[in-house]
Amino acid sequence: MSHHDRPQVSRRGFLAGTAAAAAAAVPAIAQVTAAAGPASAATRPNILLIVTDDQPKHTEWALPKTVDWLAGRGVKFTDGHVTTPLCSPSRSSVLTGQYAHNHGVRNNGSSYQLDQGTTLQRYLTQAGYRTGLFGKFLNSWTLADNPPHFEEWALLQPGYVDARWNVNGTVQTINGYTTTVIKNRTLNFLDKAATDGRPWFAYVTPYASHGPRTPEAKYADTAVPEWNGRPSVPEADRSDKPAYIKNATGTLADGRTVRAEQLRTLLSVDDAVQAFKDKLAALGQLENTLVIYIADNGFGWADHGWTKKSVPYRPAHEVPFYLSWPAGGLGSGTTDNRIVANIDIAPTVLDAAGITPSHAQDGKSLLSSYSRDHLLVEWWKQGTAAGGPPTWASYVAKDKQYTEYYDLTTDANGTVSGTGQRKFREYYDLADDPYQLRNSLYQATQQDEQNLGIPALAAQLATDRAG
């Protein structure tokens, strides 16, 4: 079953004989009649949710131990995305299962718009889970404010060395490398499982690989594999692109620098993940812990000249995404090619824990057989200053991507204003043009648009944005 494309396993699949259920063509949910109600307390999995910062795909070189565990003995999602390629909106989507236009955190300044009653930690606390947060929470969150619905926390004010933290209500400086601090605090939290019988939820959020991308001292000079770019780096002819991309100045050398620095910071994340695995094994909890690993957004390595996130191009919204849960039948090293996203994490965790949320979720449980044909990806410009990407929304499928830019901006609270008028459009045939070099709508005739199916895509995008 090592190359089975889509493990069809419900949270109760292990009651039906794990591997047999996983390999079956029929969704396990339909097969399993035992345990029709919520998962019993004895079988509820622990949850380890790891969210890295600004980590694009093609960074697996720095994560051999993570990949060996979570992809080699779990599930690798080959088509993982975030629905808003920006830290705070994406993290809010991870915790709620909602699009940013529904949870309200449309930019990094509007973290307090999130309804904390809709979060994973609130549902899990209510269901009797022990909960802990170790690392970054939400951008613009005041450090002295305790994160709601966590029993224990070491909340990081973003930084790499000798940073400020809120540890269980006390703001303090902790000397040392922050990924190591996060690792040790998480291990202490896990250790308590030896004497505390409650299932637990650990939300682990290192600052790597966010700028300034400071590596741990022992990795500061680590040689990384050579990289000679890709066709989108830096893309010589951008005449068919929006103005901010025409003006982008990133070079191959810039992309190489960002990539090398990101890889070096991720080496410490890999060490932490290995330590978590070893601890779970020592506790006898490796089997029944649902582990999910995702980045909050990707990052450009000078693709189209862009060395940031926040854009509708693939390097910004495609992310590494792994899941492992041996007791749930997801422990044997499979590849899942569905279009999946950060909004699917909360539904998956609640499904595994046997919890029905009381708020509407946009994502779907990855433990179900649900498969979407496209995804909405959206982003808002904060403020009215010139430059940078305008507000945009995008229809993303496996073989195509259609993007609209709008005359809309948000204030610091995420409140939207503007005419909403369409300013620019892009369409890429991803099968023929995976690096998004040819915008088929540039100088397209009305007949060209009909042939590409643009009216239907535009209508679907409008529906998705309103949903």
List keywords for this structure.
single chain, 467 residues, alpha/beta, Alkaline Phosphatase, subunit A, Arylsulfatase, C-terminal domain, four-stranded antiparallel beta sheet, 13 helices, globular, disordered N terminus, TAT_signal, signal
List the helices and strands and how they pair.
Blueprint: H1 18-23, H2 28-31, E1 46-52, H3 64-71, E2 75-81, H4 87-96, H5 100-103, H6 120-126, E3 130-135, E4 152-156, E5 161-167, E6 170-177, H7 178-191, E7 200-205, H8 243-246, H9 252-283, E8 289-295, H10 314-317, E9 321-324, E10 334-341, H11 345-353, E11 375-379, E12 391-396, E13 400-406, E14 409-410, E15 416-417, E16 422-429, H12 446-452, H13 454-466
Parallel strand pairs: 1-7, 1-8, 2-10, 3-4, 3-7
Antiparallel strand pairs: 2-9, 4-5, 5-6, 8-9, 11-12, 12-13, 13-16, 14-15
Helix pairs in contact: 3-9, 7-9
Describe this structure in words.
By secondary structure, the protein is of the alpha/beta class. Helices cover 26% and strands 20% of the residues. It contains 13 helices and 16 strands. Strands 6-5-4-3-7-1-8-9-2-10 form a ten-stranded mixed sheet, with helices on both faces.
